[in-house]
Amino acid sequence: MTHENAHSAQNKQSPLVSGIAVDVLVCGGGMAGTMAAVAAARGGASVLLVERWGFLGGSATAGAVGQFVGWETAAGRQVIQGLAEEVVQRLERQGGSGGHTHFTMSTGHRMDQVSFDPERLKLVLDQMATEAGVRLLFHATLLDVARQGDAVSAVTVLTKAGPLEVRPRIAIDASGDLDLLARAGAGFLPLEADEAPQPATMMFRFGPIDFSRFEALTSAELQALCRQGVDSGALARAALHQSRVPGTDDGWFNISRVSLDATDPFALSAGEVEGRRQAFAAAGFLAARVPGCEGGRLVALAAQLGIRESRRVRGDVVLTADDLRGERRFPDAIAVGAYPMDIHPARGTGLHFETLGGDRSYEIPFRCLLPAGLGNVLVAGRGISASHGAHASTRVMPTTMAIGQAAGTAAALACAGNGGPRELDAALLRDRLRQDAAFLPD
Ligand SMILES: Cc1cc2nc3c(=O)[nH]c(=O)nc-3n(C[C@H](O)[C@H](O)[C@H](O)COP(=O)(O)OP(=O)(O)OC[C@H]3O[C@@H](n4cnc5c(N)ncnc54)[C@H](O)[C@@H]3O)c2cc1C
Questions:
Q1: Does residue 69 have its Cβ closer than 6 Å to ligand 1?
Q2: Which ligand 1 atom is the nearest neighbour of the CA of 59?
Q3: Are strands 151-159 and 141-148 parallel, antiparallel or unpaired?
Q4: Whose CA is nearest to atom 8 of ligand 1?
Q5: Is the distance from the beta carbon of residue 67 to the nearest atom of ligand 1 less than 6 Å?
Q6: What is the 53 CA–ligand 1 centroid distance (Å)?
Q7: Would the CB of 381 count as within 6 Å of ligand 1?
Q8: Is 68 in the pocket of ligand 1 (CB under 6 A)?
Q9: Cβ of residue 31 lying under 6 Å from some atom of ligand 1
Q10: 18 CA to centre of ligand 1 in angstroms
């Protein structure tokens, strides 16, 4: 082949464009999507995971949210295990986390926490996905969805080589914003009159910090500093909350706040600009005013604004705040959560934080993962069918990982049984999850 012929061959449409068929397509490789893909592949399904970034983790890596919280009841009983716990153990073995710890919040709540290095997490998730046999397609964005009746028959993604049509038996929307479901025409839950989506945050890494002095600040001193920061316009949130990067003197700070509709592309773009502005303003305040931070500077920004809340699907069941408060049991429970309802208000600098208290926990039914009116689609992650209040608890990463494991396990079982997710025997799904070390009470 001459040089010119080779060149024109490269310009022809890639063979990718002819499309591929898979058992399970996972759209979005955040913590929920990655766990869903791993569970489905370990369950014997052929799995394609489509992710717009060049790495897995979503908010945990691209958003640089450097801590998993919400493993335990307030009394200290661990209710999230399974694949999520495997992630922690792998991180620990590779020096990417010190494992489970606790700290006391200004509200008095004893928070459980696993701090981790987002860069090491990328590697751990690569390893889990590739070892399980998940086929990864990075730098690929959802483009279109075709339906036949109540089934998603094809999903087109835009890749470096052009559009690729994927024909899945089951699709799992783990894109956080539920882009696949939006294009499939699914219904979403509205906000009540007194509700607004939780604001986004641009995480930033700051250091070095003299942690012996920073952590010695009393609650009163911290509150006075936060007040100064808010009054001077340097802080959008009355907090100096950070998670230390294991093995370093740096922390990832979670102290900016941008209210937006993350599904509006122009609002999202303006939000990235505003997030960076706020991050630099807050870093300047840290260096100028906060004991222990005098020698530090902003070392890195997250690759993207962290989105707390956008679309929530209308599923066969809607989990509510009262279900959490009342510890409601469900026969098709696939995960247990215990994290407080943690609402960052769209306006204002404070936090609404409602703990379940004591040894209380709640259950998440499988029906919250089933979009009403769609037969071969599951939701994993922060977009499950939950009210604004319930979502404020289910959105944390240990819970989204447990939901992801359940979605992937269900998809593999459905493929093996030739039925749809809605026809699955909940008892079979629960047994399989328990066999795979997920925590589910009898
Ligand atoms: C600032 C902030 C602080 C938080 N603090 C904590 C905390 O301390 N501890 C904790 O446990 N939780 C925390 N949370 C909550 C938690 O991080 C998220 O709710 C959780 O990570 C959501 O996981 P997910 O997998 O559902 O979605 P995401 O992490 O949003 O993942 C979605 C994935 O889909 C990809 N994607 C999206 N659209 C497309 C598309 N169209 N095509 C292809 N790919 C797509 C994205 O790139 C991403 O990888 C915080 C959240 C934020 C934003």
A1: yes
A2: 29
A3: antiparallel
A4: 67
A5: yes
A6: 12
A7: yes
A8: yes
A9: yes
A10: 31
User: Which whole-number Å values give the CA distances from 26 to 3, 22, 298, in the listed order?
Assistant: 39, 10, 35
> CA of 192: how far to CAs of 143, 189, 195, 387, in Å?
30, 9, 5, 9
| Residue 175 Cβ < 6 Å to ligand 1 | yes
Q: Which atom of ligand 1 is nearest to the CA of 175?
A: 34
Instruction: Give pLDDT tens digits along the chain (442 positions).
Output: 344 444 444 445 554 557 999 999 999 999 999 999 999 999 999 999 999 999 999 999 999 999 999 999 999 999 999 999 999 999 999 999 999 999 888 778 889 999 999 999 999 999 999 999 999 999 999 999 999 999 999 999 999 999 999 999 999 999 999 999 999 999 999 999 889 999 999 999 999 999 999 999 998 999 999 999 999 999 999 999 999 998 999 999 999 999 999 999 999 999 999 999 999 999 999 999 999 999 999 999 999 999 999 999 999 999 999 999 999 999 999 999 999 999 998 887 778 899 999 999 999 999 999 999 999 999 999 999 999 999 999 999 999 999 999 999 999 999 999 789 999 999 999 999 999 999 998 8
Map out the domains of the chain as residue ranges: 16-195+311-435, 204-301
Distance between Cα 10 and ligand 1 center (Å): 36
Q: Please give the Cα distance from 398 to 239 (Å, whole number).
A: 23
389 token code pair = 């209040």
Q: Is 176 in the pocket of ligand 1 (CB under 6 A)?
A: yes
Tokens encoding 324: 């959490």
Question: Following CA atoms 151, 308, 215, 114 in sequence, which dihedral angle do they give, to the nearest 10 degrees?
Answer: 0
- Amino acid at position 425, single letter: D
Greatest pairwise CA separation for the chain in angstroms? 75
* CATH level 2 (architecture), domain 16-195+311-435: 3-Layer(bba) Sandwich (3.50)
